[in-house]
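Assess this one:
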Amino acid sequence: MSELLNRFPQYSLNLFGVDNSSIMVNQARKLLGGKALIYLGDNSKLPCKDDSFDLVTAKNVTSICIPEIRRVLHEKGYFIFREYGPGKGLIEVSALFPKERLIRSRNLDYYLSILKENDFEIEIAEQHKTKRNYTPERLIEVVKSFPFIESFSGEDEREILNRFNRPLEEITSDPLIIVTRRKR
C-alpha cells in the first residue's frame, strides 16, 4: 500500500487492507500511519459492501477467494494478483521436497482458470524467472517466514543447509503477475 501512496501522491486514495497475520497488520498500520484502514482477517469474508472498490490487489496470500474479491470490486474494476509459481519463489529449494509438501504450489494456468470462471477478463498474465543470491542462513529465514513446506522440521533445515552451503547461493524465483478486470 505504501507503494501506491508513493507512486500516486496526486490522487486522494482511500486504502483498505486485510491480512490474516496480526504481526503484518501491526506493521502495516505503523508503516502507513493512519493513511489506510487495515483489518485482521482473510479474503474469504471481507467486511465491505458489494461493489466497494475500483482496484483490489493481492500479493503472496495464503489462500485466495476470487468470488469474494469479485463481490467487492466495482463492475469493470481491476484485480492485480502477484504470487509465486510452482517453485514458490525458491525453485532450487522446492526441488528438494516432494510436491505434496509444498504449500500452494500452483502454476499460472490454475489462477487464470479460476479468474475466468468468476467472470474476470485477463489483461496481463506473466510468469517471470529471476535470480537472487542468499546466504544459507538467510535462505532458511526466508523458508521459515511464509507457508512454504508442510511440517517443516529440523531435518528439512539440515537438508537445505547441506545442499546450499556456499557463502552465497544463487536461487531462482518464479513470480507471476496477473492483471484482470471484472466483466460485469
